[in-house]
């Protein structure tokens, strides 16, 4: 299950401040995880995710401050072909919606600081909304240009990306040369790309991802389930093709490993499943002006 949308705003900011990647203004992405097995119950399930986002950056008159406002929505569809953990819940639809407000401030001596505030709805929307359906994700960091092609920084993120709300140290790293690019937010994202042609990049991407959803109207042996957490790591090749100046077609795939899911009841009792490593594939249609 790929919970990308609430962090799209954070990656957008890092891309903009790096001045070495492209600024994603809007787009749609689709992920498909074919059927895989769980342990220890040997259940079978597949996952499809569709999401879209829109971001509006605004540069203030001082030319040193950038504000970003963005929105994102995603639908995650889980289809259990065989399920011993939730026998009466063969299909689950999970929704995410987020608003991103961020500020980027340029400082003397090639320093940049950033702060982001991302309130997020994550729920199956089966009952009345409550505070349990919302989580606030934030990030702040400082970035320094340490060479003509290298930018490096450090900071903190409060995110559900590892399956539950956690404070995570982050190290943004950006490297750009004529042919080589690195876009990384360690330890949760790393992407390397080689520019074969002006409109074609091919590389490798590794992402640790996850989510934390509030769910209602689902029970396990008469126990009411309240939360659904999950984590996974996706690794594989990525292709960016630009048929037009503002349009990027994205194709990525590979393996999804380290997959764990947890169901929690109202008393935080946990029912855990882990999944076997399996393939995934993703396609995207992105609007982004090149900053080259």
- Helix segment count? 1
Q: How many whole angstroms does the radius of gyration measure?
A: 19 Å
Report the average pLDDT across residues.
Answer: 81
Biggest pleated-sheet summary: 16 strands, antiparallel
Basic shape: globular
Helix content: under 10%
Strand content: over 45%
Structural class: mainly beta
Number of strands: 16
Uncertain residue segments: 1-21
Cα(first) to Cα(last) distance is: 33 Å
Task: Write the element-wise H/E pattern from the N-terminal end onward.
Answer: HEEEEEEEEEEEEEEEE
Can you characterise this structure?
This protein has 292 residues and is mainly β. The chain contains 1 helix and 16 strands. The chain starts with a helix and ends in a 5-residue tail after the last strand. Mean pLDDT is 81; it is low at 1-21.
Keywords, please?
16-stranded antiparallel sheet; 1 helix; single chain; globular; mainly beta; 292 residues; disordered N terminus; 5% helix
Entry summary:
The chain has 292 residues and is mostly beta strands. The chain contains one helix and 16 strands.
Walk me through the topology.
Elements (H helix, E strand, L loop, with lengths): L4 H14 L7 E14 L4 E16 L5 E18 L8 E17 L3 E13 L10 E12 L4 E10 L6 E11 L3 E7 L2 E9 L2 E15 L4 E2 L2 E22 L2 E19 L4 E6 L2 E10 L5
Antiparallel strand pairs: 1-2, 1-15, 1-16, 2-3, 3-4, 4-5, 5-6, 6-7, 7-8, 8-9, 9-10, 10-11, 11-13, 12-13, 13-14, 14-15, 14-16
């Amino acid at each position: 299950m790929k919970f990308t949308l609430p962090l799209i705003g954070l990656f957008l900011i890092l891309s903009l401040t790096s001045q070495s990647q492209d600024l994603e203004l809007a787009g749609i992405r689709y992920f498909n995880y074919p059927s895989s097995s769980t342990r220890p119950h040997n259940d079978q399930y597949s996952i499809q995710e569709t999401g879209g986002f829109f971001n509006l950056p605004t540069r203030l008159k001082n030319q040193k401050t950038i504000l970003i406002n963005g929105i994102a929505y995603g639908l995650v569809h889980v289809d259990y072909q065989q399920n011993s953990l939730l026998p009466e819940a063969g299909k689950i639809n999970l929704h995410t919606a987020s608003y991103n407000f961020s500020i980027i401030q340029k400082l003397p001596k090639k320093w940049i600081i950033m702060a982001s505030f991302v309130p997020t709805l994550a729920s199956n929307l089966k009952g009345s909304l409550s505070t349990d359906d919302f989580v606030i994700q934030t990030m702040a960091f400082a970035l320094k240009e340490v060479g003509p092609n290298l930018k490096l920084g450090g900071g903190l993120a409060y995110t559900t990306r590892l399956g539950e709300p956690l404070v995570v140290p982050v190290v943004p790293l950006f490297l750009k040369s004529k042919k080589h690019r690195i876009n990384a937010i360690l330890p949760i994202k790393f992407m390397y790309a080689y520019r074969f042609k002006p409109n074609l990049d091919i590389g490798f991407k590794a992402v640790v991802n996850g989510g934390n959803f509030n769910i209602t109207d689902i029970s396990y042996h008469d126990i009411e389930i309240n939360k659904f957490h999950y984590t996974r790591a996706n690794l594989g090749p990525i292709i960016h093709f630009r048929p037009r100046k503002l349009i990027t077609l994205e194709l990525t795939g590979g393996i999804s490993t380290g997959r764990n899911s947890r169901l929690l009841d109202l008393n935080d009792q946990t029912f855990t499943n882990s999944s076997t490593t399996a393939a995934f594939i993703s396609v995207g249609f992105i609007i982004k002006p090149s900053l080259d």
